[in-house]
Design goal:
The complex is a heterodimer of chains A (262) and B (209). The radius of gyration of chain A is 21 Å and the shape is globular. Chain A is built from 9 helices and no strands. In chain A, 33% of the residues are buried. Chain A folds into 2 domains: 59 residues, no CATH class; 199 residues, no CATH class. Chain A starts with 6 loop residues before the first helix and ends in a 13-residue tail after the last helix. By secondary structure, chain A is mainly alpha-helical. Chain B is α/β, with parallel strands linked by helices. Chain B is built from 6 helices and 9 strands; from the N terminus they run βββαββαβααβαβαβ. In chain B, the strands form 2 sheets. In chain B, strands 6-7-8-3-9 form a 5-stranded parallel β-sheet, sandwiched between helices. A 4-stranded antiparallel β-sheet of chain B has the order 2-1-4-5, with no helix packed on it. In chain B, β7, α5 and β8 form a beta-alpha-beta unit. Classes of the chains: A mainly alpha (262), B alpha/beta (209). At the A-B interface, α6 and α7 of A face α2, β6 and α4 of B.
Amino acid sequence: MTIVLTPLELGLAVALVVLSASLSLFLSLGFHRNLLWAAVRMIVQLLLVGVLLRFVFQQNSAWLTILIFLAMVTAAAYEVGARQPHRLRGRWQFLISGVSVSFSTMVVSAFALLTVLGSRDWLEPAHALPIAGIILGTAMNSASIALNALLSNINNERVPIEAQLALGATRLAALSPLMKRAIRAGIIPVMNQMVGAGIITMPGIMSGQILAGQDPLEAAKYQIFLMLLLAASGTASVIAAVYLTALRFTDKRHRLRFDRIV
Amino acid sequence: MSKTSIDRQPHLSGSVEVLTARFPASDKVEAIEFELQGGTCTVLTGPSGIGKTTLLRQIADLDMHGGEVFLGSVSQAQIPAPAWRRNVMYLASETGWWAPQVRDHFAVTDEVLAMMQKFGMKPEKLDMLPGQLSSGERQRMALIRALSYSPKFLLLDEPTSALDHESVLKVEEVLTETKRAGCGMLIVSHDAAQVERLADAHIVMRARS
């Protein structure tokens, strides 16, 4: 049985967000504006994407699929650097984020579409875009968390890092413990998601499929497959983002380049 | 941060005994040019904020600069930075520690233990966390750590700023022995008496008029 939501039913859910914003206002928590803005943005974005995807699915064009994918990667690359207290100066943040998330998403999506899902037409938008979207989201979150950890830690631990460089350590040797910590921080959400799946949380894809009438065991198998893809893409994007950022934050003379971050 | 291994080798081959530095004038400071001989101590003084620390960091290649620095006839840019810094070693006034215990930061040799004894520090200090040492102990331990790498030149930024008079004299004694062993030193100091005791040569940085 497929549940079709009416505008009125969606409106009831909006009432919950309005209630949360009212609580923020009443308790002077100060997040009501941001919450309402985020909710409005989310509603508009998802409705637009629903309309857009309906159009794209009807066209069934490989070029259109690639174009949509590139737009998603561009947005993700921007979002990795947005809201970071420290980020690389100029276009470097965008470039490194873009390379990291697109690389991991492309490799893992292609693997999924070409092998396990056995899609004959792997650029068929109804398969490629949802898979790429889920994988890209995880790659983006993981890279964002890892880069925040890396740049904040380098900023806080400048003295010990430079003490090692002064003693003749290479840049990667001096930054290695911080890079490892940042990579672990970036992967934690994916690992938590896997550990808690089915016990603490009912994963979104599985829930969605069950609500859409899918057999729970089949939905679980699909979710397992996706979780494993997310673990792989999160790991790849985090490692790429951290290594590329560490290299950009230093130079060939193994110096820290604080002039390259804002 | 966990333990990071720092390669103690290789040093540059041959006995390089002269470090030459030439820095052009900037908006703030006059041009500066000097030679450091191995086995001598040069003290660098000047008003606060004029750039003494920056100069030391530039000689160690930790900061970018527009000057020229040579070890013998080999320029800084021709030598890989880690090898350069093992030979021209900078010790900051604020000491940095990255591993759990003090002993994790360098190889504890008989030489290290002997230096600790000269500084009046017990070997048990090696098993402590760096944060458990006093600032003066950290300063002396960081000096021992730098000396344990046997650099050809040492760039010391106020190496005794956190020490009492007695400890200052002990450190100066070790520095004098190190100098006699052939190490060249450039020391930033604000202590006129220390300049008198240590300096074979004295460089004064002056603001550009």
